[in-house]
Write a structure and sequence with these properties.
The structure is a homodimer. The longest helix of chain A is centred in the last third of the chain and has 18 residues, at 106-123. The first copy, chain A, has helices spanning 5-19, 28-35, 39-51, 76-84, 91-94, 106-123, 127-134; strands at 55-58, 64-67. In chain A, α1 (5-19) packs antiparallel against α4, α1 packs across α7 (127-134) and α4 crosses α6. In chain A, β1 and β2 form a beta hairpin. By secondary structure, chain A is mostly helical. Chain A has one domain: Arc Repressor Mutant, subunit A, CATH 1.10.10.10. The two termini of chain A are 16 Å apart. The first copy, chain A, is built from 7 helices and 2 strands; from the N terminus they run αααββαααα. Chain A has a two-stranded antiparallel sheet with strand order 1-2. The interface between A and B is large, with 45 and 45 residues. The structure holds a DNA duplex.
Amino acid sequence: MKLSTRTRYGIRAVLELAENYNSGPIQLKTIARHQGISVKYLEQLMAILKSAGIVSGLRGSKGGYILTKSPDQIRLSDCFNCLEGPVITVECVENNNFCPRTCDCIARTVWAEIQKTVMDVLQSITLQSLLDKSKPNENLHYQI
Amino acid sequence: MKLSTRTRYGIRAVLELAENYNSGPIQLKTIARHQGISVKYLEQLMAILKSAGIVSGLRGSKGGYILTKSPDQIRLSDCFNCLEGPVITVECVENNNFCPRTCDCIARTVWAEIQKTVMDVLQSITLQSLLDKSKPNENLHYQI
DNA sequence: TGTATTCCTATTATATTAGTAGTATATTAT
DNA sequence: ATAATATACTACTAATATAATAGGAATACA
């Protein structure tokens, strides 16, 4: 269960937008430079975040990206879900018809429990709460 | 974060061994038939479980596999760890030297928290506790 | 000795992730 | 208007990991 760079980079980018909330749009080339990611790859990640309604893009000169909501209204679970997909993918947890014994299967209950547990953690964390934690050091740009 | 067939099949196999604990060695061809997995692939999964000390193999005619400990002494976390690896793989969580800002990084603390949360769930579940749950229906063979 | 089983190693197939590239479209500034 | 700048969109390529197959060696039992 490896965390993809898609999710790691994407969340780093969103955190940088949160850090600059209310300072106007931030351009991808800026984020790319700070985070050591290519602009082109970032574009694709932002497209995902955009279609999830987390960010919006402004074209043209002086354009860039902004958060659609304030950092205290965006949960880590929102970002994680669209970038990474379901926390733990086992077909039978999502699709009751996948297996004839779904309603009795014991292991399925384990995967479902894990899924819920992780979602609870991610839902309890907002971008703002993460920023607040980091303020003293301001080391936001570096690695996730 | 998809769960690999390696883990799903491996845990199914271990559960079948648990189900037959004290009935002598169970052969891979039997498990393979019940679970709809090839013997050859199962061999590789059992090799992993064997090197983790969870099962042991007995060669030759009338051979097969047995659990090295009773089902109430084997935790799901033991099986999961060796089959799937760390719950959530982010280099910096395992390796403090991966990133220069490890000690301050906020996102790292999130991944670490999730890792711990999931491990707590897996550690709280033994093979026996799963068997006890399923006894009434005996649907152990089917899909995980 | 023959049969059945695990054990070991190599190879292939498939899917997913990661990343690059090119062009179109929109916005701003001159 | 035109040039410059940035996102938007789509296609392609590379790298990696998973999943599965295959062949033969070693061991145990009858």
